[in-house]
Amino acid sequence: MNDLYETKIPTAQWWAYDLPGNAGWIIWLICTWKCLAAGISVFSILALVPAAMMIIGIVEIISERIAKLDRVLPRKRLLRGFGALTAGGALGVPVSALGIALNLNGSLPPWMLAGAVLCALFAGLIYKGFRRKE
Predict the structure, then answer these.
(1) CA–CA separation, 34 and 27 (whole Å)
(2) pLDDT at 37 (0 to 100)
(3) Rounded to whole angstroms, how far apart are CA atoms 89 and 120?
(4) What DSSP character marks residue 81?
(5) How far apart are CA 92 and CA 38, in angstroms?
(6) Which of 123, 48, 60 is CA-nearest to residue 89?
(7) By CB neighbour count within 10 A (0-12 exposed, 13-18 middle, 19+ buried), where does 27 fall?
(8) Whole-angstrom Cα distance, residue 62 to residue 80?
(9) Per DSSP, which regions of 11-132 are E strands?
(10) Per-residue confidence in pLDDT tens, the chain, 134 aa
(11) How remote is the C-alpha of 125 from its chain's centroid?
(12) Which of 37, 43, 80, 109 qualifies as a FRET site for 99, CA 20 to 30 Å off?
């Protein structure tokens, strides 16, 4: 069964969620890159897991926009897009908190925490705005 999900979030509200959410994953990816550039460590490897989830979500959302499926999505696409972005951001919170607690990679983990929270919160708000289409 190919359930469809639709959002009726107004365009202005979508943008209000989309822009800080985008800032979040961009911050996470830049900081992860910087962590890796400083050297491979357990922390930089852990940071790759949320980064991979975010990239999967971003690629899916771009493909949805190319296919003009912005507001009506099959369940699989919804989960691969906004679901992966939300989960990646949520997983980034404990990873960055670990980096802060252990004082790893200088000032990057607080930035990563901010990025993870923005990504999880605002991608999650868009995700939760989708309802099964009758």
Answers:
(1) 11
(2) 95
(3) 4
(4) I
(5) 19
(6) 123
(7) buried
(8) 11
(9) 72-74, 130-132
(10) 579 999 999 999 999 999 999 999 999 999 999 999 999 999 999 999 999 999 999 999 999 999 998 799 999 999 999 999 999 999 999 999 999 999 998 999 999 999 999 999 999 999 999 999 88
(11) 11
(12) 80
- Residues 6+ positions from 96 with CB-CB distance below 8 Å: 47, 109, 110, 112, 113, 115, 116
Q: 3-state class of 3 per DSSP?
A: coil
Please give the pLDDT value at position 44: 94
Residue 132: strand pairing partners: 5
Other Cβ atoms closer than 10 A to 60: 21
Rounded Cα gap, residues 28 and 26, in angstroms: 5
User: Does residue 133 sit in helix, strand or coil?
Assistant: coil
Q: Please name the amino acid found at residue 68.
A: K
| pTM, rounded to two decimals | 0.93
| Phi then psi dihedrals of residue 79, to 5 deg | -70, -40
